[in-house]
Each structure stands twice: as structure tokens, then as C-alpha cells.
Specification:
This protein is of the alpha/beta class. The protein folds into two domains: 131 residues, Glycogen Phosphorylase B (Rossmann fold); 170 residues, 3-Layer(aba) Sandwich (Rossmann fold). It is built from 13 helices and twelve strands. Strands 3-2-1-4-5-6 form a six-stranded parallel beta sheet, with helices on both faces. Strand 1, helix 1 and strand 2 form a beta-alpha-beta unit. Helix 7 packs across helix 13. The protein is globular. It starts with a strand and ends in a 5-residue tail after the last helix.
Length: 324
């Protein structure tokens, strides 16, 4: 009988991107195993086309029966909270692996594990690969293997053609917490500099301050997860804070500039071959992924000027492989 392994990573965009290499690593080490991934319905498009997976199990609310029907032998809880750990227990798996308590999002998650792993890696992706180390050795470099359907890529090509943004800089001013967002007015200034000096047409991912960019003649892209991924893959450059789309862009291989302040890029930074980080560490920088989620932009982020960000973009573009 094939060994059945269930990956538990329910949300969110950046967290799921950081966990994707676990699926690739497991498939390489366990070619005969049946691999499944339990994920929240909102984030289903991120993993439903992953070539390493045999099955994707959508999770709605507190439902657990779909995971139970898979009948896993082993669960890997990459989420690290009470809900994901309980889901592992209810799945019926006899072996349930999770990170050691200091690395968990919620300490109560440890109640339902049969084994906990103390990782040595600083970055969260390395920590999750270590968690899977009982089953698969960690690769030299993580493989994300994101798949975007050709139909979605065609739709976004048409959108870019209508907007005249084939050579595009994609900007990410939005995000979950104000404390880790570089000011929108600075993104607008950076967009102007990239347009004047590098000939890149700026496009902004939709957010609360869309009007600020539309007034400056900067197109705003509004689309779902897969169209967003296609736009990020097509961009010559992506700039953003510690947000899910930035991590997605880096995983797709797009040159990506991360603007970090209250969160530590050593743990949470984007991973990819064409990544640069501007990091202004606050006085008490967090190294375990936890930080104060505030309603005002972190002073550490305000210390990053438009000129500094533009200079980093120029260096990143010069170092990136030619798209000609």
C-alpha cells in the first residue's frame, strides 16, 4: 500500500509560498507515496496545479472530514496553529509532525503532535524543510514549482497589451498590516522614476489607495490569485513590502525588491535567484516572525527613501538575466 502523507498549510499567500518546497522535496524523496495538501478554499489556486501533489483537499471553516477520508499515515503541520494541529489529529494519522513549541504560531498546537522538530534554519522555508526531514532530505535550494495555466497567462497578456504595459514594473503598496507598508506616495514617486529613467510602465496591485495611483495615470490591476501570479511572472521588476505577492514574485523568478522594517527578512524574506532586500531594522527587531502589528507605518520603513529604493531597483535590473 502506498504511504499517504498529508501536508497541512491552510493559509495565507506568503506562508503557502514559503511552504511549497516541502511538496517538491517529498515528491523527490518519496516517488511512490501519495501526497495531499489541505488548504483553505481561498488559497486553493496556489497548490491545485502543483506537479508534486496527487490530491488537494479544500478546507472550509472547521471541516475535517475531507482530510479524514484521505486516510493519511503521516501529517506534516506546516501551519503550526491549534486548528491545523487538530485537523491532523482528526485526520486519523498515527504520525503527526510539527515544529517545536518555540517555533509555533500557537503553543496549543503541540498538544496533538506525536513528534516535534527543533529547526536550526533561520528562514521559515528552511524550518519547514527540516520538519519534513524525517521523510525527505532538505534540498540545496528550494523548488517552488508554481504552475500558471496558459489560459490565465493569455488573459493577462491581453490586459497588458490594452494598457500598454508590456515592459512592466509591478508595485505592491498594499498588505495586511499598516506597520509593514511603505507609504503609497513613495510608491507613486518610485513609479515615476522607473518610468522616466528605466522605461518601465508601472502597474499597481489593487488596494485601499487605488485612486492615488489612477490619478497619476498608473494602471491598477484587479484580479484573482492566478492572474496576479501571471502578472508577477511577466513583470521585469516587482517591488513590495513583506507581503504575499512579493514572496510569490520571488518564487516565480522575477527580480524582486523587498522593503522590510518591522519583520526580519532573515526569517520572512522572499526566496529566489533575483532578490534584493532593503532592511532598516527597528530597535527591537523580531527574529522569530512575531512583531507588533500596528496601524502606522514602522519608522524603520520610513527610513527607506525613494532614492534608495530606486537605486536598488537599478542594481537589481542590471543584475537580472536579459529578457531579450
Amino acid at each position: 500500500m502506498r504511504q499517504r502523507v498529508l501536508i497541512l498549510k491552510l493559509s495565507s499567500l506568503g506562508d503557502i509560498v514559503h511552504a511549497l518546497p516541502v511538496a517538491s522535496s517529498l515528491r523527490s524523496a518519496l516517488p511512490e507515496a501519495e501526497l495531499a495538501w489541505a488548504v483553505g478554499e481561498r488559497w486553493l489556486p496556489l497548490v491545485e496545479h502543483h506537479p508534486a501533489l496527487d490530491r488537494v483537499i479544500p478546507i472550509t471553516g472547521l471541516s475535517w472530514w475531507p482530510a479524514r477520508r484521505f486516510q493519511p499515515d503521516i501529517t506534516l503541520d506546516l501551519q503550526g496553529n491549534f486548528k491545523s494541529s487538530l485537523l491532523g489529529l482528526l485526520s486519523g494519522a498515527r504520525r503527526r509532525l510539527g515544529l517545536a513549541t518555540p517555533w509555533l504560531r500557537e503553543r496549543a498546537a503541540a498538544w496533538f503532535y506525536t513528534r516535534q522538530v527543533r529547526p536550526r534554519s533561520a528562514h521559515i522555508t528552511g524550518q519547514l524543510l527540516e520538519l519534513a526531514g524525517d521523510l525527505a532530505p532538505a534540498p540545496d535550494f528550494p523548488q517552488f514549482l508554481l504552475t500558471i495555466p496558459a489560459s490565465v497567462q493569455a488573459e493577462t497578456r491581453q490586459w497588458r497589451a490594452r494598457q500598454g504595459t508590456e515592459a512592466m514594473a509591478f508595485l505592491l503598496p498594499g498588505g495586511g498590516w499598516e506597520s509593514k507598508l511603505w507609504p503609497a506616495v513613495r510608491y507613486r514617486e518610485l513609479a515615476g522614476a522607473l518610468r522616466r529613467n528605466q522605461g518601465l510602465a508601472p502597474v499597481v496591485n489593487h488596494g485601499p489607495q487605488d485612486a492615488l495611483f489612477e490619478q497619476a495615470g498608473i494602471p491598477v490591476f484587479r484580479g484573482g490569485l492566478l492572474p496576479l501570479a501571471a502578472m508577477l511572472q511577466a513583470a521585469r521588476l516587482v517591488v513590495g513590502g513583506d507581503t504575499g505577492p512579493l514572496h510569490l514574485a520571488a518564487a516565480l523568478g522575477t527580480p524582486a525588491l523587498g522593503l522590510f522594517g518591522p519583520t526580519d527578512p532573515e526569517r520572512n524574506g522572499p526566496l529566489g535567484a533575483n532578490v534584493r532586500i532593503l532592511y532598516k531594522a527597528p530597535p527591537q527587531a523580531s527574529r522569530n516572525g512575531r512583531y507588533m502589528r500596528g496601524r502606522e507605518t514602522s519608522p524603520a520603513l520610513l527610513a527607506i527613501s525613494v532614492e534608495e529604493a530606486h537605486a536598488a531597483c537599478v542594481e537589481l535590473l542590471a543584475a537580472a538575466p536579459s529578457t531579450a
